[in-house]
Amino acid sequence: MPEKLVMRDWLSIREWLEPRLPNIRYVSVDIFDTILGRYVGDPQEVQLAVCRAVAERTGIAAEEVWLARQQAEQALRAEAVQAGADHECSYSKLLPRWIKTMGAGAIPELAAFIRQTELDLETATLYVKPDAQVFLDWVQEQKIEIIAMSDMYLDGDLIRELLRRKGIVSYFTFIYVSADFGMGKYSGRLFRQMLKVKGVDASQVAHIGDNPVSDRRMACREGIQGVWLYEKADLRRRERQALSARMAQRGGIWQGRYFFECVQVRSQQQDGLKPRHFFFRYGRDVLGPAFSVFMQGLQERLQQQAAAKQPVEKLLFVARDGFLFERMYQAAGGRIPSAYVYLSRRVITAASTADGLTREQARVAFYNPKQRGLESVCKVYGLPAEELRPLASEYGFQDFAEPIHDWEDVRLHNFLQDQQVQAIIRRVGQQHKSLLQRYLEQVGFFSHQRVALVDIGWNGTVQKFLKQAFGQRQDFPVLHGYYFAFVPKMYADFGDNNICEGIVHDARRGNACERIPAEFEEMFEQGARSQEATTVGYRERNGVIEPVLKADTAPDRQAELACNILVTQMQQGILHHWEHFRVVQRLTGYDSRQVLPYVYGLLERAVVYPTREEARELTKLAHTEDFGHDHVLELGNRALRWRDLLHPRQLMRRLELSAWRYALFDRMPAGIANFAFRMVYLHTVKK
Amino acid sequence: MVLSPAKLFVYALAFRFSSGRGRCFSPGLKAMAVWYAVRFRQFLFDRSAAKWWRAKFERC
Q1: Residues A35, A136 contacting (CB under 8 angstroms)
Q2: Of A375, A318, A214, the residue nearest A529 (C-alpha)
Q3: Do A322 and A509 touch, CB atoms closer than 8 A?
Q4: Which one of A211, A217, A253 would you mutate to disrupt binding with B, by most B Cβ within 10 Å of its Cβ?
Q5: pTM (2 d.p.)
Q6: Which helix (H) or strand (E) holds A546?
Q7: Helix %, strand %, coil % for chain B, to 5?
Q8: Reduced to 3 states, what is the DSSP secondary structure of residue B9?
Q9: With an 8 Å Cβ cutoff, are A228 and B55 in contact?
Q10: Alpha-carbon dihedral angle through residues B3, B5, B9, B10, given to the nearest 10 degrees
């Protein structure tokens, strides 16, 4: 007589089984939720995702496809019961009936497409439980045959394929599926069938499964030793995920929350045991969601363009922050030809002096608090300081590196009025412009009707100046700028056929909640940037225009090089997230707009309410500008203490100068100071 | 990566108290109440534990 066995883990089962091995010939295991776990709370998610894919393929509404499937399945189950079998239906019978019910029989190869999609999505939602695999290894070493048994609508050959894809099919000598035999474990008939086929006594079989009725009670009734695998933590997780899935139907942040819960479960199951560095975790858990939703939004916009018969023909990922986005695009198997292009504000502004330098242009160099007068102007616009220095001294600039705080400085005015000065500037500017133009021709910029620039943001300077410098060319393409965050503070008019859009944040939408990336831009730039130095110009070599990068000896570049290892870890984390994001997106069918509200909350937490570890680690990064200055922005500052509140002026000054204000409060408990400062700040910014 | 609804609600309050626009990542008071009520019910009436007790007292 079988014992009543409820086991909490695979190790306990092994301990129980070990002394009884001489009497056991077969170990039978349930497949789903026993050997294979699911990343989603509700297995129905897979069927719904298949219906969405079918709807997309056939043009029939997804709800109708789902209804047709339900009708076909119910009819088949009812017929099986009438025929005296169990309430079972097999996929091989369901598929033609389903296609017929939705009236899509004329669509070629639809059955093969549905079958393949269902198999792909099932594979994507399942994982092999590590403990279960250890147990299967052990049983195999004991030379005992393992049988798989499942109450499932998928036929045996599909289950076999699933197990093959998961790399565990070789453990099993036979697979009994209710769909093949028309009988289930829940009635005990599948157990009887197995005993009959194998010609074995029930006492020589042990069956393990997660269902207390089908896998334990019914097995015991047939004389088989049934073991109920009671994995409490797994059951609670599934219950929690099922609740999240129900809440997701309410919309708002709940969809995003459910979405990222699935991503997290998937990521933890595959990667949870590996010790990960802080920067990897930060990339995976904070920047990963933000950049992934941006890439998802980008793909949606490209699809919309294609649907409107105005397809983007070439994607240009702009250096240096487009580096990560290009890698993410390639990882997702993007079909539009793409390239990583060496453009920077520096080379663009240098080309803009082809017609001379105005006072307004010169002022741009003085925005930086560490500016060094005419020397900064030369650096920003790539002008020859040694040629201009003697001319400058004629106008009273004894020290070429003297900071210019008075923007109406008469000396500057007279210096820029000098024809000789302007001639030098124009000559150099035209060289810059010519090289830039040839570089753009080389990367195919002018060879397409519609080109998209992809960058992190913020003002769209590159896009603005490209149009300004080369917009008169007949072959200048319609230009789309897709930015992670678009904050057009410097320019309002981008001209005709020059479209800009911020996908995660667009200041023109006027939504205060989404402007969080603009409050710590440096973090996002660090997460996306290439390891290479910024582009400072171009040179011709063997008829090819190649970028000239800033020298590694520059002080800001030295600081950058020291941080490259941390940036690499962060980007590995982001790409890890992106891999799981794509699978969950396919499964849930959510678009970027559905996920974005939650991502804003996630970023609000990360920027405004950082943990101590985040404040400590992230401030190790050195941030550099690519605008000609050799300037390193310190992200870290000494944390505020209570006594700092006694000196409000000094406190305000420190807050103003800090790149990441909220990190200064990390010594104050419970985030109360962050909350208070956030409110004050939101009051002061333009609503 | 997965934030509690209560935290999101508090973060959104900073917007509500300042600009009056805190809806975009607020879970909503009603939905949050439903969430915590269901979680509390799940805690009190643990279905998996009930199954375990049922199996324990059931005849083999």
Answers
A1: yes
A2: A318
A3: no
A4: A253
A5: 0.88
A6: strand A544-549
A7: 70, 0, 30
A8: helix
A9: yes
A10: -60
Coil, strand, or helix at residue A667? Answer: coil
Other Cβ atoms within 10 Å of A361 Cβ, number: 17
Structure token digits, residue A655: 């807050």
**Beta strand pairing status for A632-634 and A622-624?**
antiparallel
**What is the distance in angstroms between the Cα of A237 and the nearest Cα belonging to chain B?**
11
Alpha-carbon gap, residue A687 to B21, rounded angstroms: 9
- Is B55–A602 a contact, with Cβ atoms under 8 angstroms apart? no
Amino acid at A64: E
Q: Between A410-417 and A419-442, two packed helices, what is the crossing angle to 10 degrees?
A: 70
Q: Which helix (H) or strand (E) holds A547?
A: strand A544-549
Cβ atoms of residues A341 and A318 within 8 Å: yes
More confident residue, A224 or A106: A224
> Roughly how many angstroms between the first and final C-alpha of chain B, as a whole number?
44
Q: How far is CA A657 from CA A369, A554, A652, B32, B48, in A?
A: 11, 24, 9, 38, 55
Task: Tell me the per-residue pLDDT of A287-315, one tens digit each, with 9 for 90 and over.
Answer: 999 999 999 999 999 999 999 999 999 99
pLDDT in tens, A1-56: 688 889 999 999 999 999 999 999 999 999 999 999 988 877 888 999 999 999 99
The first and second tokens of residue A646, run together, are: 């006694």
List b or e across A522-550, with b for residues whose CB sees 16 or more CB atoms inside 10 angstroms: bbbbbbbbbebbbbbbbeeeeeebebebb
For residues A363 and A112, give the distance between their C-alpha atoms in angstroms, rounded to a whole number.
65
Interface touch A4/B60, C-beta < 8 Å = yes
- Classify the phi-psi angles of A172: left when phi > 0, otherwise alpha if psi is within -120 to 50, otherwise beta: beta
* DSSP letter, residue A65: H
Handedness of CA A602, A608, A614, A620 (dihedral sign): positive
Q: Chain A partners of B25 at a C-beta cutoff of 8 Å? A: 253, 513, 597-598, 600-601, 604
Tell me: the pLDDT tens digits for A151-195? Answer: 999 999 999 999 999 999 999 999 999 999 999 999 999 999 999
**Cα torsion at A285, A287, A291, A293 (round to 10°)?**
40
8 Å CB contact of B60 and A254: no
What whole-number distance in Å separates Cα of residue A512 and Cα of residue A685? 9
Going from the C-alpha of A571 to that of each of A114, A334, A604, the distances in angstroms are 35, 19, 21
Closest by CA to A328, choosing from A296, A305, A366, is A296
DSSP string, A352-421: GGGG---HHHHHGGGSSTT--HHHHHHHHHT--HHHHHHHHHHTT-SSTT-----TT-HHHHHHHH-HHH
Residues of A in contact with B38 (CB under 8 A): 243
Cα(A224)–Cα(A207) distance, rounded to whole angstroms? 7
CB A513 within 8 A of CB A495: no
A407-461 residue pLDDT tens: 788 899 999 999 999 999 999 999 999 999 999 999 999 999 999 999 998 888 8
Nearest CA in chain B to A245: B35
Q: How far apart are CA A160 and CA A171, in angstroms?
A: 11
- Does A252 contact B14 at a Cβ distance shorter than 8 Å? no
Of A193, A198, A197, A199, whose CA–CA distance to A222 is shortest? Answer: A193
* Block residue for tokens 């309430």: A87
DSSP state letter for A669? G
Name residue A260's amino acid. F
* Chain A to chain B Cβ contacts (< 8 Å): 114
Please answer yes or no on whether B21 and A605 come within 8 Å at the CB atom: no
